[in-house]
Write a structure and sequence with these properties.
The chain is α+β, with helices and mostly antiparallel strands. It folds into two domains: 359 residues, outer membrane lipoprotein receptor (LolB), chain A, CATH 2.50.20; 231 residues, Ribonuclease Z/Hydroxyacylglutathione hydrolase-like (Metallo-beta-lactamase, Chain A). It is built from 14 helices and 31 strands. It is elongated. It binds zinc ion.
Amino acid sequence: MAPNSNTNSPKNLRPQRLKPQSICNDDGTTEVGALTKREIVTKILKPFVKQFSAETDGKYIHVAPAGTTGVHSAHIRSIWRGGHMKTKLIGALACLSLSAFAANAQDAKTVVQNAMKAMGGTNLKTLEFSGSGSRADQLKDGNTPGPRVLVKSYVYDVDYSLPASRVEAVAIQGIPPMQTIGEEGHGLQYVNASGSEWFAWDVGGLPGLRVPARPKDWLEIAFPPSVKKPGDPIRQPDGDGLQSHSEMDRVEQIWLTPHGFLIGAMKASDTSVSQQTIKGEKFQVVSWTGPNKQKITGYIGPDNMVAKVETMVDHWMYGDEHVVRTYDYYEYRDGIQFPAHMVETITTPALTGEKALGLELYVTSVKPNITTVDFSIPQGVKETPAAPPATVMTQKLGDGLYYLAGQNDCSLAVELKDYVVLVEGPLNDARSLALIAEVKKLIPNKPIRYVVNTHPHVDHTGGVRTFAAIGATIVTQQANVPFIEALLKTPHTIIPDTLQKTPNAKGEVEGVQESREITDGTRKIEIYHMKGNLHSSAMLMTYLPKEKILTEGDPWTPGMVNVKATDKPYQRCCDAQNIYDNVKRLNLDVKTIAPIHGRVDTWEHLLVYLGMPPEGASESKQSGGR
Ligand SMILES: [Zn+2]
């Protein structure tokens, strides 16, 4: 991507490399060990073997797209040394804190200054580092992480003085056939926190990159009016959109980088230091309060390098998240010491083990104090409101039957004799409170007794805690039950939500293995597991047999009826064919689809979308193919 990609030249590398340091976790367990090279190939690279060649010289594993050579290949080559896997050795390797004593601020600043000097960051104002690696994707089900996303290229630019940052990533998701093999997603994510109001924005679908055009009416649904065409910058306000806290999270990331941590510690007024001896190695443990009022703590090793930085952040669904960045294999590059390998874990009660493994990056290039990035806030982004209120736009589909749209995710409210069933509690606490208020208005004096959860992805599950707080039972596919239960127990102390403020909430979780019915004798809601769905293996759909209405969350987003060949990746995402397969398997007579994303549409339009002939015209003609 960058023209100057030959940054691996030997003169930039000092011969000695530092050993990775084992770091104790708060719970006394130790992160040790590494994936073997074989494990890296089978566990991380396997989904990509078709388009990537992976070769080892006995020491490193080099990855490159198959058939590429020269500069391009050199640019995306990454050095896989070890990988990362959290191995818990409870008790076997006791983490001993031999001494932990507070020291005065003077000591703390001296420790930080010494580290800064050793890491060559004393005059550091801007920094760019780049590399490749992998990151997490959405969960397959509540227990199972999705396949790792291969991050072909990752470029992080930061201006510590503003502060502002930009991440440019080219990633390939590993879930064929939802994504066409080899299709690359390209994304740019900015934050600028230099003024009193912070701005986070994304730029996607740059011209010349193979990102499929989004259909016109998708734009109308998902994007604010300032976005005129695909690729225009779009604000990601804190507390809205699919990311939980875009502004705060991106600013926190700045201070979690090795040099950013030290720069922040120099500026902070409450920087403190203590010492810990971990597995025989002494660490200076430096803490200061970050922008979201949580401690940011860094572990500085005997070599004066920042080995690990950790903090707590809020996520509207996952609650208080423990974010840990570990840095190892420091190398001297262009005047500063920088880790060649970094790993982020994000742990909560619902995100443990492999599910907690976030971005793992192998750094191939570091450029200190070269500012080429324009961090200025685009006009359209400035004009987008900070946090739009949760709006509910109601469409009546029948007596006691309401489609509740208005944001990225919709719900279906179904009135029964004594109570209401809501299909989907999406997004977050604010959306749920708005839905509860709207249901109260439309169907007075009846409680929401059940909330059907289609699948465990953040935008579909982020609101379930609020419904548990008002005593509703969350109905989900059996495999998601422990996950949702963990979500309901997760502390939300950083930004307390409704459930956090309702200590005696009675909300429960109920699993559906294959199917379940909710009925009052007059109206019936059928709930089915969508077998074989590629988007999530633990996916539910609902069907109202009297009204012939199907509700599904993600497999098809109506609004993309006139599909062209170039729309293929969108056509495949997120397994619309699976709706058809399950409807036929269950012999349902669907006339209308009231989806979680998009708009209410007809079964016939789904057939057009799938490239199938209309039903009823000639039964015999349908036999071929599907
Ligand atoms: Zn999903």
